[in-house]
Queue: 2 jobs
Job 1
Amino acid sequence: MTPKKKVEFLIIGQGLAGSLLGWRLIQQGHSVLLLDPCLTHTASRTAAGLINPVTGKRLVKTDHVEQYLTAAKELYAELANFFGLTFLHEREQVRLFQSEAELNQWNKRKNQAEYAPFLAERFNAKDKKYLKETSLGGFKQQQCAYLDTVALLDHLRDFFLHQGCFIKAQIDLSELNISSSSVEWHDHTADKIIFCDGYHLQYNPWFSWLPLQPVQGDILTLKTDQPLPNEIVQFGKWLLPLANGQLKLGASWQWQPLDEKPNEKAALDLLDACYPYFPHLRQAQRLEHNVGIRPGTRDKQPFLGQHPEQSNLLVFNGFGSKGSLLIPWHAERFLRYLTHAEPLPTSADINRYTHDYFTR
C-alpha cells in the first residue's frame, strides 16, 4: 500500500482568497495542498482589482479600511519583493458627480474628519477635457489603487506548482471522505479542508446554509490609439487606463442568470455609459470580454470560520467585489485562528449565522 500524502490544510480554490491564504500558511511553515480547475472566467481573474476606500452613491467609507489598506500594501509588497514584479499599482482616481444628490453627499462627507484622508478637492467641468460644460464636475479620491490579479495569481500558481502543493482538478465533493479527525481526497489526507471556491459555496452541502448573494459581472478590455486619462475614472461605471493604449471598462451587475457567459447587452451598456465622456472609444478595439461571479454576502461581510458541527471543515470566502482590499487582512486573522486559536473578527465569523444552520 502506498502511504497517503499528508498535509495540514487542503484548500479548495486558487482564486485570490485561496492563493493569499495558501501563501501565508506556507510562509509560516505549514503544509498545504491547493486544488483548482484553472478556469478562465472566474471572479478573481475577471476583476480589475480596484481598491477604493469610499464607495457607493452615499460615499460610504469601508469600515476599518485603514487596517485593510495597511495589510494589503504590506502583503502585496512582500509578494512583489519575492517575485520581482509589482502587482499593486497606486493610481489617482476621480469620481464624476452623476446627480445633485451625489454633490450634496460629497459636501457632507468632506466636512467629516474620518473622510479627510480619502476625499480630496472638487474639480469643475473646465478642469477635465472629457467633461462637457454642463457637467457637475467631480472630486479626487485618495489612497486608491488596482491589483493586477491575473499576473499575481499566475505567479502564485507557478510558486505552488514548484512547491509541489498544487493540483489542477475540478473537485467532486462526493469524493471527500470526512472523519472526525481528517479529510481524505484520492491519495491525499489533510487535517482540515478550507473552501475558498467563491460562489460555488452555494452548492456545498456543508455550507450552503450561509446567505451567499452571488452576482455576475462583465468587464471589457479595449485598445485605442487615442490619449487616455492618467487616472481611474468613476462615472457610475469605471474606466481603468493601462499600458500601451489598453484600458478596462466595467462593471455590470447581473443577479440572474449566473451562467458565466459574456452578456453582449451588458457590454453595450458599459460602452454607452462611457461614450459621453470618451466618444473616441467608439473606434476602440475590443480585446476581451470577460465575466465572473462575485461571491457577495447578505450582510456584505465575508464568511470565515468552521462548520458548527464538523470542526475540520472551514470556509474562507464571501469577499464580494472588494477582495483585493479585504483578503490580506482577513487572511492574517484566519491564519492566527487556524494556528494559534485566536478569535475571528465578529463581523466575519460565520457563527453569526449558526442559528440559521440549526433551524433549517
Note: The mean pLDDT is 95.
Job 2
Amino acid sequence: MAPSEGISPAIPKISHLKTEECELPLIDLEGLITKMCDERERQACCAAICKAACEWGFFQVVNHGIKPQLLRRMRREQVKLFDMPFEKKATCGLLNNSYRRSKLVSRWGSPTATRPNQFSWSEAFHIPLTKISEPACWGDFSSLREVINEFAAAMSRLSGLLAGILAENLGHPKEAVEGMCDASTCFLRLNHYPLCPKLLGEEESFGLVPHTDSDFLTILYQDQVGGLQLMKDSKWLAVTPIPDALIVNIGDLFQAWSNDEYKSVEHKVMTNNKLERYSTAYFLCPSYDTLIGSCKEPSMYRKFTFGEYRSQIQDDVKKIGHKIGLSRFLL
C-alpha cells in the first residue's frame, strides 16, 4: 500500500455545488536555493513555510531549484508511458509490475464499496527509489529511467531542505527528519486521471478518494488542468494551479512527530469529463523500523514504527473499508 493512499473515516457524498477556489500560500525559495538572501530574508522564508505547515498543511513553492526543462521532460515521458495500450502497461513488467489501475475499481478492493464516490478513476505507476538505478527493471524504458533518476534526485534534495526547515522550527537539528528517511521506502508515483464520463447519475466522481498522506512530506508536480482539492475549515477548497510551482503537503508522520503543530490535511482529486490530468508525486518516507515519537512533551501520541502504522492502516481498510490513521495512536 502506498503511504498516500487511504480514504476518510466517513466517505463524503460528492457535492454538486461549485467548489470555492483557493490560492495556497505561495513561497519563493530562490534565496534558500541560491544562498543569495541575507539572514533576515532567510528567516522570513522559513517562517512562511512553517506557518503554512501549521495553518494549511499545504503550500506551493516557486524558484525551488528544479529546472523547468526537467519538469517538461518528466511530463513528456510520463504522457508517453500512459499513452501505451492498457494491455502493454499491465504486462510490460516495468519496475516489477508497478502499474496500478483504479478505474471503476475500489481503491482498496473493498467488498463494501457500492457507490461511485467510493471509487477512484485513475491509473498510476508506483516507483520505489531503490529501483531507479537498476537498469534491468526498466526494459525498453531507458529514456524514462534517465529523466526519473534526475527528477527523483532533485525532489529528494528539495524534500530534505523543507524537512530541515520544519525540524529546526521545532527546536531540532535540520537533519532530524531526513535522517529517519530511507530510499528503500521513499518513492515516486506517476498519476494519470483519464477523461471521466458521468457515472451512474453522479455529476462528478473521484480521481482519487479523500485521504491524508501517511508519510512525512509529499511534493507534487501537477499540470494546469486542476482537480486537487483540500479540506480547510470544514469545507473543500479547489487548488488553483500555478505554472512550474510545486505543491508541498504535510503527511501523518510529520503531524505526529510535531505533536500536531503541523497538520496532515485531507485532500482528494476530482475527475474531469473534458480534460485528462497528469501529476507526479514524491513521498518522503522513513524506513519501516523507524520509531515515530512526538518531538515535544506531553506527547499526544504513543510511539509507533512506520511499519506498524502501515500495518494498522491495512488492517483497518480490510476490516472496515477505510483508513483510521493517527487517531488510532492517540494517548
Note: The chain has one domain: 20-329.
